[in-house]
Amino acid sequence: MGKYSRRNFLKVAAVGAGALTLGSILDACGQTSPTSIPSTDTALPSTQQPATLSPFPPETLQPATNTAPPPTNTPLPPPDLVVTSGGEPELLVRQAILALGGMEKFVPIGSNVIVKPNICVAYHTYEYAATTNPWVVGTLVKMCFEAGAGSVKVMDSPFGGTQQKAYEISGIKEQVEAAGGVMATMSPYKYVRTQIPAAKVLKSTDVYEDILNADVLINVPIAKQHGSSWLSLGMKNLMGVIQNRSALHISLSQCIADLNALIKPQLTVVDAVRILTANGPTGGNLADVRKMDTVIASPDIVAADSYATSLFGFTPEDLAFIVIGASMGLGRSDLQNLNIRSIRLDA
Amino acid sequence: MPDLPQFNMLKLIPSGLTKRKKLRGGRVSGPWVIFRKSIQYTALFLFIALFVWSRQDGGPANLINIPMRMDPLLILAHLAASRTILAGSALALIVILLTVVFGRAWCGWLCPLGTILDLIPFNRQRKKRPAIPDGMRRIKFDFVIVIFVAALLGNLTLLFFDPLTLLQRTLTVSIWPALDRIVTSLEIGLAKFPVFAEPLGVFDYWIRPAILPVQPVYFQDGLLFAIIFSGVVLLNMLAARFWCRYVCPLGGTLGWLSKISIFRRKVGIECKGCTLCTDICPTGTINPLQDFSSDPSECTMCMDCLEVCPRGQTRFVPVFSPEKWTGYDPDAKEAFLALGATVAAIAILNSEQAAKRQSPFLIRPPGVREFNSDVVAFTKCTRCNECIRVCPTGGLQPAVLEVGVAGLGSPILTPRLGYCDYSCNACGQVCPVQAIPPLDLEAKRSQVIGLAYIDENRCIPWSDGKPCFVCEEMCPMPEKAILLVETNVVGPDGSNATLKLPHMRRDLCIGCGICEYKCPVSGDAAIRVYMPQVSVPF
After folding, report:
1. Of the candidates A161, A187, A228, which has its C-beta nearest B484's C-beta?
2. Three-state SS for A247?
3. Residue contact A227–B479, C-beta within 8 A
4. Does the CB of B469 have a partner CB in chain A at under 8 Å?
5. Subunit contact A284:B460, Cβ cutoff 8 A
6. CA B526 to each of CA A193, B96, B459, B470, B502: distance values in angstroms, whole numbers, following the listed order
7. Domain residue limits, chain B
8. Predicted structure pTM score
9. Per residue in B20-62, pLDDT tens?
10. In chain A, where are the structural domains located?
11. Domain with residues B448-538, CATH architecture
């Protein structure tokens, strides 16, 4: 953290420059003004680009992205899951989404997008790995706008501390607002009772209306340990959108899978820049935090969670909600059969 | 007062009788009254604005507790009880100085409760009520004696009846939660119609979290405190500003101070005795039998009499001699009686507190236990309820009888209603008299306010053999105070299963109570926070 050696900078710059050649998508990131991003946690390869691009590229630019001929190093079809590692958060996210086919694939022009990070408590700053990395969230918000999203709202409902304080302490509010997104208040009147026909236990629950109405939901959990031999990943992160969470805890794994049968994010981006390996989900001890500089992205939430278990030395079979989720057909946990692309940015 | 406002109708109304009819509603107007009312409404607005501001995660503590630090009764009683001088309490000198110059102007011009009583006067309901004997006015003075004697003996319970604490408590515990319920219910109702979705979103964006909380807070005794407050307002039916005339201990304190106030009401010699001023006076202190003179201890300097006098005979002029003791000011015998009764009552209360030492759930705000020796009676607490209104979770609740009569209105953490937020130290920051020490967040996080115990007979994994680890999940400690131990258990049906059972590591527990708050067991939680070992010398 902190300082950059010249070598690091050159690496990052080289990767960034390489990325430029991949297509017109990255053109859009050139608008990021260097002052809007603290330099400590973010690589800014894009600042080398000419600053002639407007902050929000005209919509006419976008379709060109999809039709652009794929560069030689992008095989067809796009992978089921992308893992990027060894770089700064912004670059990790950009590379991962790019390898999945670009944000345009998930965010139609003019759509209203909700990004759901994990902001579970207001206790600690992001370094403690209890809440999603702010730059990961901020980059996703930026990319949504670059893809032509009409609105991007970011929200979560913490269980410890007030929402507004949690938004602030996590650092997410700052990055989201810098990216032009809105940190939305999750107001108590907006929960609607919703039936989950496919559910085994959680037959109905009160779900936040905006989540149900969103055109696109992007799930951005942080990977962390949870309750001795359990993990909190993408599927668990969706618990933040319902009102009565303590009711789920009797058979938690089944309830998580049931909830996932209702709420299906178009994209799951697991933030493993830092992971919390003990005393989760709340954290508070830097000794429990491991810096992985990794981001996992997939349209398949079960696959993303399955892969993320490996960061902790688990297999997907160790986690009941993954097993149940796969058996309910919510996604795939057979990692060996998935088309996984691993990208090391520092290689 | 050289240029008194003149009434155009002056020559037309020789006797003032026509005018009296016009005053049936108890209203009078004029530049002074308009000026006074604008000050009154501004002060009330500021009081409520500071109240609302504090709800959004605290607000600047030194600003939002200004009204309490200006209250001379609260500050002087605290001084008597704690024998410590706090620099921030110097604000009370402003009101004391104001009183020495202008008498009970606080009551007539600034007090937010007084303004509310003016706004809901019940004038019509009062017309046929019998006159209340003037002797009743002594109640508030006796009240002052009792409060200060009790304070010297280390008891501040009766500050419960200070007008500012009373209003603040009612706003916090009754009015705001009710408002929140009403607004949320309306929102839920209207949200069913798609037409309203857009305006509702805008409306909600402006009120939450600015005015109403995002996560609702609940108070167990909201109704009781609403009834007490309603009683104070309804007393207006018996007499205008009944509370201020007969009961208010702050009014009594300022009333006595007004005996030496400089500006006092005097009536000129051209007074024809039309009794308009007697009728209009909100505290009923203008005595037609004594040349329409008034008692500065009762006069709130509202200026109604000045505006209503058709001959301009009412003036407020500087006087530099102390006012005489009146018939309803307590004499030596009465004062001695009040003193004796207070001493006896405090003795009884103290023994009752010793009995209440047994209360297992007496959890005070963070730092109280370590920095005050009087956890049970909490003698430094002025009952202002600032801590309760800033508590973001609603965990702090005003005690009714949980810690005995002496603990009335003092804050207790009630974990089933709200937990002590690990990211918050607002209560200590906002406390105007440092009864809750102003700890920084790091120091507050290590304060042991209670200790959690698991009820293995009710805990889901322990007694039902089903997995649950909410308490462990919620525990905010960097090293969890709840340990999950994988254990082979025999289920109720005789089957063997491996379960994670929660165990307390009480050496790590601070008693924040989030485990109790979130425990999914219905009714009393299966994990409860108890008061730690009491180190109070009884």
Report:
1. A228
2. helix
3. no
4. yes
5. no
6. 28, 52, 5, 11, 11
7. 26-349, 448-538
8. 0.85
9. 444 544 567 889 999 999 999 999 999 999 999 887 666 788 8
10. 79-344
11. 2-Layer Sandwich (3.30)
